[in-house]
Amino acid sequence: GSSLQRDTFWGRSLLTWATMNGDPAIVEAILDASGNPSEQAHRISEETLLHAAAYFGKDEVAEVLLKRGADPYEKNAAGNMPSAALDLSADNASEMAPYFGLNLLPVDDVLKGRTQLRELLASVPNPERIQTGVLNQLAHTSSRLQSSEYLRVRMGGNSIHLIQTDVFDHLWFLWFLCWLVVIFGMLATWGLLPAGRARGWLILATCLPQSLMFMSSIATFGPDTSMGIIPKPHVLVFYACFFFYGVAEYSANGINTKMGRSWKWLLPAAIVLFIAALATINNRMLAAALQPAYAWTMSLGLIGLFGRFFSKPHPMASWLADASYWMYLVHVPLVLIAQFLVRPWDLPAELKFVLVLIVVIPLLLLSYRFGVRYTVIGRWLNGPRSVNE
Fold first, then answer.
1. Which residue from 17, 89, 265, 346 has the fewest beta carbons nearer than 10 Å?
2. Helix, strand, or coil here: 40?
3. Cα torsion for 358, 174, 296, 221, to the nearest 10°?
4. Could you tell me whether strands 152-155 and 158-161 are parallel, antiparallel, or unpaired per DSSP bridges?
5. pLDDT for 282-334, tens place per residue?
6. How many separate helices (H) and strands (E) can be counted in the chain?
7. For the segment 156-193, what is each residue's pLDDT rounded down to a tens digit?
């Protein structure tokens, strides 16, 4: 009875908690009390307990589940068997454990557990352990190569994976810009920058890196996250397509861009594409076409909309644009503190979200106005500003 109940915050049963924390004794006790070894650990992703055990490297728990009849062939919503999780980033599993409410999980423990799990799950058919199809095979191979232990640097008792270890967190975007600027300089030196009239191919090119996205436990919308020292190649290529489209557009039209002039049909098309992309999120081939199509139509449509109605400079808009850089850099600690404070409140999640915004945004704006704008930090971020601006 109680083993089937799920907690109200995480939606997990006692059996799921014991599995994710890697306690075989408790797992056995719950199974003895009529627990189901093939129950879903996560209802939305349709992951089983074996999926969770494989991802976090809980080999002893997985062995108990298999002996009690857990199905190693069961697929999640993305069509992947539990053994597919063995090729996902161990660093990500280690870093995400506390966010899932679990105990601290050293990356080496994940790697050690997964080594044992490969032997336990070796008899599973389909060696690649994922859906069939060329795109799925390519995505799986790409994920496996990017998680290779050859890219791990060990320093005493610690280690860092050059691609998978989270180094930059939310500042990954600035790190990507550094890479793109260097690539821009190299292409400019070699005379290989895309010309103004030859930029349409960059729109189609985004489909290729998109086809390699979401090699995770479940399908995700949009590009993957890349926060390591070396950017994930397919993610960098994805953003490079947008970056160099802008380069080509500026080469053709300068600051008087004509991008998005058909915003009246681009924005409605983006809404339709967004709905279609969500409906086909687990189909890699359709996702490779629909998700970039949505990104392009929405981006160009919004550029056109703002170019049409907000093209004239406005002091308040300029001030907020300056403040946004500072807000981007420092917002995470404040948001996390606010989330921690409202977490126990018995309120709908949507209302908590609004309350966090109402509190955090004014604090960030005030910190920018009185602590940043007219200081060395402000000059470094946005250039010198006078009090009258």
1. 346
2. strand
3. -70
4. antiparallel
5. 888 899 999 999 999 999 999 999 888 888 888 898 999 999 999 999 999 99
6. 16, 4
7. 878 899 999 999 999 999 999 999 999 999 999 999 98
